[in-house]
Design brief:
This protein is mostly helical. Helices cover 70% and strands 0% of the residues.
């Protein structure tokens, strides 16, 4: 059972499911760094999430732009395939 000091601001809990192999790997990595599993996971997650809100907004906008460009490229390919099929049919007559 974990005991927390009254002034400890950590009052939120996260849970996740992992494979037995992943759990052992995480436990070993935490132990190698002299940390608890919780400390290790929180530290690694925070290191990876050092984008500001503005940066995250820009990334979301870029992802939306990329998805739009991919969709337009797909339409262009479909249009090209359709025109090519029509041309082939016309030339075969």
């Amino acid at each position: 059972m974990a005991f927390h000091l009254a002034d400890d601001p950590r009052d939120q809990r996260l849970e996740t499911r992992v494979t037995p192999e992943d759990k052992v790997m995480i436990q070993n990595a935490a132990a190698a760094r002299g940390r608890s599993v919780s400390q290790f996971i929180v530290q690694r997650a925070l290191q990876r999430s050092d984008f500001s809100n503005g940066e995250w907004r820009t990334l979301r906008e870029l992802r939306g732009t990329l998805e739009t460009l991919q969709y337009l490229a797909m339409l262009q390919v479909e249009d090209w395939k359709g025109r090519r099929q029509t041309r082939i049919r016309v030339h075969r007559r």
